[in-house]
Amino acid sequence: MTNESDLNNLGKFITLEGSEGVGKSTSLNFVKELVESKGHKVIVTREPGGTPLAEDLRATLLSNRKEKIESDAELLMMFAARAQHVNQLIKPALESGTWVICDRFVDASYAYQGGGRGIPFERIKFLEEWTLGQFKPDLTVLLDMSVKEGMERTRQRGAPDRFEVEKIEFFERIREAYLQRAAAEPHRIHIVDAAPSIEEVQRSLRALVQEHC
Ligand code: TMP
To answer: Which secondary structure element, helix H or strand E, spans residue 141, and what is its range?
Structure first.
């Protein structure tokens, strides 16, 4: 049985979410430095990915290929990678008192495979309950901005991956699904307006981490 002092020694699990071009990487680094400045040990990881097998699945999922990947196959690979990542990296780190900051997590499956590809949320929930049980992030930051603006920001990047080549409507559905998730779980998922200056975004991030972690 886990007693209260054990719980106090656990690391916290923070996830960052958002559609393309919302500035996740900059925010991720900022949150990492913030948590480290409080004296905590931190690891930064990502999904899909985070272990050698999950990184192999990431490469498969992101690469452009002639063969169309079926939406169900895409969803199942996301969860296969997640099951590996959670059990081999995230949970052991949290149990040893290390904080984990993750670039995307289960909410991305609801947004991309649910909203984007049109897979019903109940199916995703079934996989979530199967692979994660009641395990959830302590705090999820949803960086939100208009899809058009986000896409303009990504224009300077290199060759687009298998998701980035999708049309604007795909990303509109993703944004909607993320906002729907945030409305359903307002205590965990906090929306940060990603459009203003970096300083303003960082002020919001600081306040959220201080309040919730
Ligand atoms: P990113 O690291 O640049 O965000 O790339 C990961 C891509 O994978 C991104 O386009 C979102 C997508 N993705 C899903 O479609 N479903 C998921 O569950 C996760 C974690 C990511």
So the answer is: strand 139-144
- Nearest CA to 11 out of 141, 185, 138, 186 is that of 138
CA distance 119 to 140: 22
Contacts of 82 (CB under 8 A, 6+ apart): 47, 48, 54, 105, 106, 109, 131, 132
Mutate to test the pocket of ligand 1, among 163, 164, 174, 181 (most ligand atoms within 8 A of CB): 163
Closest residue by Cα to atom 18, ligand 1, is: 109
The Cα–Cα gap between 102 and 11 comes to 13
Question: Model's pTM, two decimal places?
Answer: 0.95
- Residue-wise pLDDT for 85-141, tens only, equals 999 999 999 999 999 999 999 999 999 999 999 999 999 999 999 999 999 999 999
Q: Which of 22, 85, 112, 124 to mutate to test the pocket of ligand 1 (most atoms within 8 A of CB)?
A: 112
Q: Which of 26, 34, 16 is nearest to 102 (CA)?
A: 16
